[in-house]
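Q: I'm teaching a short session on how sequence maps to structure, and I want students to see two examples side by side rather than one. Could you give me a first protein with its sequence written out and its structure tokens following it? Keep the formatting plain so it prints cleanly on a handout.
A: Of course. Example one:
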Amino acid sequence: MSQGGTAEVVVQATQLNKEYLRGQQRVIALKNVDFIAHKGQFIALMGPSGSGKSTLLHLIAAMDRPTSGQLSVLGEDPFGFSERQLARWRNAHVGFIFQAFNLIPVLSALENVELPLKLTRLSPRQRREHAMTALDLVGLSDRMDHVPRQLSGGQEQRVAIARAIVTDPDLLLADEPTGNLDAQSAAEVLTLLQRLHKEFHKTVLLVTHDPDAAAFASSMHHLSKGHMD
């Protein structure tokens, strides 16, 4: 908490717009979106497919650029960085969890989790220790030598979460993280995100169209056709 009793602003979007060209057609993904996330919040971004929620998450992660408007993330304008600076900033401060897991098939769970640490100055031994700690946190210390095809979908997503948290980022962004999972695995993943929020005070933004998944968050915002309520 900052002085004056108000939580630190982690994400602030002001009149954010994003347009794409699809062939000759202009597609408006986000329209004049205002959004604030404070440190330690667990926010669900809800809406149907095509509502703009994943676009917003990608902008916050600086994986895409807005057409217009302002976006501050952790007090920085990420779009003012060079590509190299941006990669290091993102690696240090933002953990991204994808629906499709995005694990490297030929690497073990431990090696997949270690990947973000290759951009740090940690020694190989330190990288391994950090990765083992992250895998233990997600309940997979007994699977660290398994490659993705030897894991269930739920286990793969937990490896992906371990990879997202191994650098101890300030912000966790989860884009439909349960979209490819059965109900039990989905509940385990969402419980894990909730634990990271409550016990480790992580700021979590969860994109979902599932009300059951959104119920794990402490607050919700809805998007529809690029507009936020």
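Q: Perfect. Now a second example for contrast.
A: Example two:
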Amino acid sequence: MAAGPVIRTAGVDGVLISFSDTLNESANRAALAFRAAVDAAGWDGVEETSSSLVSVYMRFDPIGFDHATMHHRITGLLDSRDWYQAQLPEGRRFWQIPAVFGTDLAPQLAQAAAQAGMTEAQAIASLAAARLRVQTIGFAPGQPYLGTLPEGWDIPRQSQLTARVPEGAVAVAIRQLVLFSVSTPTGWQHVGQTAMRLFQPDADTPFLLRAGDEVQFTPTTPDALDGMRRDPMGGATVTVIR
């Protein structure tokens, strides 16, 4: 990809602004900050925005606006600052989430630790020490991708799918953790388990976490975790990042 953001047409009523072709901290920062700036600008005709790991998608009203108009607006905002060094959006939150690492609840910790060149104890310490950003929400409702882990965790997905991991599972691959919002098959390795309900469709805010939030996992025991299952937040605590 050429240096700088790339603007692409995405159908009749969509635009995709990509800040990189690979995941990195500065491109994720740019995507989060740029989407927040578009939302704050309140442009007429913009009906939806969303961010992925390194891109921003905008859907607009094609009756009142055309691609040339939106491209002009986007280019002007892109040129207004260095988005790769931009401040992250305000209103982000820091979540501390209890999790059981290993045991029968998260049976792939040992193999993931071995791939990362660690003992199980070292792996738990490494995962618990990491304060991770919600880089995007995707794949399933309210499901966060968390990164970036230390280089030792640059391990691949499995070649075979795990038939199913439960809701609240913590899985690892390619220097990221995924916190699963639903029970699903996966190629990621199941290393931790939480009691968190990330998707609450009947709540005023159905998705518990938002892109840009930060997360740190706190090791706990299976018995303690079982007592947290009555709490939709799974025993998590949350504070606003100042």
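Q: What should students look for in example two?
A: Point them to this: The CA atoms of residues 88 and 181 lie 25 Å apart. Also worth mentioning: The longest helix spans residues 25-41.
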